[in-house]
Amino acid sequence: MQPGSTAVLLADFPGQTPGTPLIEIYGETLLERTFYKAQEFFNKIFIVASSIRQKSDIERKISGADVVLNIKNKGLLGDILAGLKACTTEYTFIGTCNMPFLNKKALAHIFSKQSTAQAVVPRYVNNKIEPLHALYKTRPAIKALQDAIYDEKTEANQFIQNIPFVNFMPVGELSEIDKKLETFLKVRSEAELSLVKDRFKKKVMKKRLEKANKLTSKIVKEGESASTAYYKVPGTEEEHNVTFNKRKNSWGCDCKYYTMKACYCSHILAVQKLRKND
Predict the structure, then answer these.
(1) What are the structural domains of the chain?
(2) Distance CA 160, CA 110 (A)
(3) Among residues 274, 168, 261, which one has the least CA distance to residue 217?
(4) Residues 103, 16: contact at Cβ < 8 Å?
(5) pLDDT in tens, 205-245
(6) Whose CA is closest to 92, among 128, 66, 72, 73?
(7) 87-142, pLDDT tens digit by residue?
(8) Where does the chain show beta strands of DSSP type E?
(9) Chain CA centroid to CA 36, Å
């Protein structure tokens, strides 16, 4: 964890379909995956919401989260400004709520480049920049944002133009740390969502199989008809009902995880193992 570090994560930004951070992937939303990943590095995290409903949705997903409501709006720049105004640290990292592959080593490298710079912004060889995966000196950035909003600017690179002493760090410096540069990935399309699902599938399946192995001996078979078998399986907080429809060769469970494609919940996996051993 970076001592005295703060992150501002935006719930909305241009090009993102509304509600994207609340999309679930194997039982956890993009918002949760990004927040808990960021928590491994940052001491303090603020999430910026652009509506009261969005603020409420975020607080339901992450209990105790520091959610800043951008009352004055002004779009993207208004969201960044609202987040920065809540910060008390000298530097603040700006990101979004749909970046599930934030890389701790990449973040540490960016922080190591601050020196006397008032911003550290990753830049590609074609001069494209990553303003929403960047580090800003809080007070100068607030002034730059206020000036940009006054001038009716709307894009992140436009407020950065108002910041003196910007360190445009070559993205290539991060390629040895994060070869595919997935730390920058912001989920905005179905293709990107599929990529994230594939990445998490193996990890999730492994954990569920491990849990299933521990549950098998505790399963209670409640009954079996010509078409369906019924089981009680212990869970973290309560028992779960698992059913197996023999005619359709289909499984069901009353927990929220069983419907995830290609990855049954641990309760179903445990019963499958039990039936296989019988």
Answers:
(1) 6-188 (3.90.550.10), 194-277 (no CATH)
(2) 17
(3) 274
(4) no
(5) 888 888 999 999 999 999 999 999 999 999 877 899 999 99
(6) 66
(7) 999 999 999 999 999 999 999 999 999 988 999 999 999 999 999 999 999 999 99
(8) 6-10, 24-25, 28-29, 44-49, 66-69, 91-96, 119-123, 134-137, 166-170, 220-224, 228-233, 240-245, 250-253
(9) 7
What is the mean predicted confidence (pLDDT) over 176-184? 93
Please report, for residues 30, 77, 89, 270, the alpha-carbon distance to residue 84 in angstroms, rounded to integers and kept in the order given.
22, 11, 9, 47
Q: Which two tokens stand for residue 59?
A: 């607080």
Task: Give the integer Cα–Cα distance in Å for 242 and 167.
Answer: 56
DSSP code of 164? S
Placement of tokens 């550290």 in the chain = 120
As given in the structure block, the two tokens for residue 38 are 């960021």
The token duo for 151 is 């001038």
Question: Which pLDDT does position 256 carry in this prediction?
Answer: 67
Q: Estimate the crossing angle of helix 75-85 against helix 138-150, to 10 degrees.
A: 150
In contact, 93 and 5? CB cutoff 8 Å = yes
Which amino acid belongs to residue 115? Answer: S
Looking at the chain, how many residues does it have?
A: 278
- Rounded to the nearest integer, the mean pLDDT of the chain is 90
Q: Where are the beta strands (DSSP E) in 105-249?
A: 119-123, 134-137, 166-170, 220-224, 228-233, 240-245
The pair of three-digit structure tokens given for residue 66, joined into one six-digit string: 């520091």
